[in-house]
Amino acid sequence: MSLKDLHDVTYYKLNNEINIPVDGRIQLEKDQEALKAFFKENVNPNTVKFDSLKDRFNYLIKHNYIEEGFVNKYPFSFIEKLYKYLDSQNFHFKSFMAAYKFYAQYAMKTDDNSMYLEGYIDRTAMNALFLANGDQKLAMNLADELIHQRFQPATPTFLNAGKKRRGELISCFLLQTTDNMNTIGRTINSALQLSKIGGGVGINLSNLRAAGDPIKHIQGAASGVLPVMKLLEDSFTYSNQLGQRNGAGVVYLSVFHPDIIQFLGVKKENADEKIRVNTLSLGVVVPDKFYELAKNDDDMYLFSPYDVEREYGVPFSYVDISKEYDNMVKNKNISKKKIRARELETEIGKLQQESGYPYIINIDTVNRDNPVDGKIVMSNLCTEILQVQTPSIVDDEQNYEQLGTDVSCNLGSTNVVNLMASPDFGKSVEAMVKALTFVTDHSSINVVPSVKHGNELSHSIGLGAMGLHSYFAKNHMYYGSPESIEFTSTYFMLLNYWTLKASNQMAKDRGKVFHNFEKSKYADGSYFDQYTTKSWAPKSDKVKSLFDGVFIPTEKDWNALKQSVMEYGLYHQNRMAVAPNGSTAYIGDATASLHPIVQKIEARQESKIGTIYYPAPYLSNDTIPYYESAYDTDMRKVIDVYAAAQKHVDQGMSLTLFMRSTIPKGLYEWKDGRSDKMSTRDLTILRNYAYKKGIKSLYYVRTFTDDNTEVGANECESCVI
After folding, report:
1. Count of structural domains within the chain
2. 382 counts as catalytic
3. Looking at 42, 207, 240, 380, which residue is catalytic?
């Protein structure tokens, strides 16, 4: 028997019967039948068996499947103890999709892909042992978190931990280029290298001179950002030729850059092939001033980055445009061109309808809420990573005259349903922080010195959450209801508190803090004012009952933490970020990220095998009323839920807007008396609502069309943790 010779299996057919109602009833039991059949017909006969655990480890090490170094940090008697504990927890997948996803994408296989070499317990053990780095107590704590699915490391970490032949453990990278050919060349090389080792790459192009700007030493004119975008897209495509992922990159441009209209045009359906980009994602960096100009229906000026840098002495991205706008308009040394702000706003809406792009980064909101010294100028491929960067200067030999700081990020997620059932919320979060910190501490991206440098200074991590909607449904809360918003705020307040506690303890134990800690709002204590001056404890009886038995920090507790942080510091510059969850959410039987579900029975297209049906977690007659599709949900409710979390998250969140091309009647009051077709006006209203609610970033706009297709439904396989 071999995975290559599977015939007459029944699990696909049984799974598909979920989508065939009988007497008006969903056949949810068919999913469990498919799960049992999958193990009987696929997993059990095609898993390599060993006489003992010792034999298994010896075999895997001898044949270069796993690294020997991390194994040797433990007495083998401890590894046996850890396995005995994991076995005793009686883990079972809860759905066919969970098991299928794990064995298709995560389980280690023989070199010829004919047999499985591990099950879920083995992958859990690999992660616990590898991430604990010889610390037996931490290894046991991590095993406990992982086997109970309270913690889910990002795909690169969960997939690669412990393997001898593996990719990086990092999820994604952020780069910026400055306005010279050396830096552009270095950025393209960096994009090639980072795409090769895995992970999505975000690149800021706002500092590049616009099309038509002078190049004085050759008495010519610049070609603008579009040719650089084409070079980057080709680089991502080439670098992934031998990999299994599609090219994964996003480029960001300021909304005040003179090339902004052409930038947006590269994704239009009727774009000329010479300028069209197919796989590269687009993001727009939007200061407050743009919202003001559009609201007043004013003209707006687009400024030459070349001239701005000459006048201000810093790259374009580092100038506060909202503050300096009027001065820049008056400055005759800065060339500029004029357009209507609302026309640009409409262009953004049109493109979001057509393609789901661009992502939106509300950059002034981001920097107002940033407690760290420095400026944030961009985001990553999924819009949740927001960290300060400094520009690099590269000489003619491609060496760094000034080594700046770029970003690598490693992500993990709490499973809301399972973490709420933890016997010790704080202990669980502490173990997660330590696991993510191991990835940061042992990541060394030598091929891109600016990324390596940034990581060494910041020690940043990104802990988030998934399964929020499933928690709401399980506990009879409608998505976007007052109690759901209150719960979200309390949950993320706790995550913030415990990640701060863990980071503070780590700084105390190691005697080390992140770079420039002393210049942060943590160091002067001002960051904690929001917590020491009012209570964040739940108010309603419903939410109080949900947190019954869970420690809720008071103002006194926050003040004690404030004093400790001011005295001992924090190890991590950044701690939290909410990524879009993909396959790992299925494995954990959780709804993705903080979003509402798309379908009660999700039809998931899988390559080679067709459609797999996945019932929403905990779906039953009891919970079905609380599972309304995102496409039928007022997006202001989604924004409200995310805004409640964002108050406590130091970085960002991947917030997707779900729209129907034909808007359901009564969903948005401004549609009354107007066409029921989705318009750019609808998207403008929602973007402005998100901005006013303090949302830092907007990810895709996903549109469900009248012919039952989705626009803007791409996934980043690195950040979907």
Report:
1. 2
2. yes
3. 380
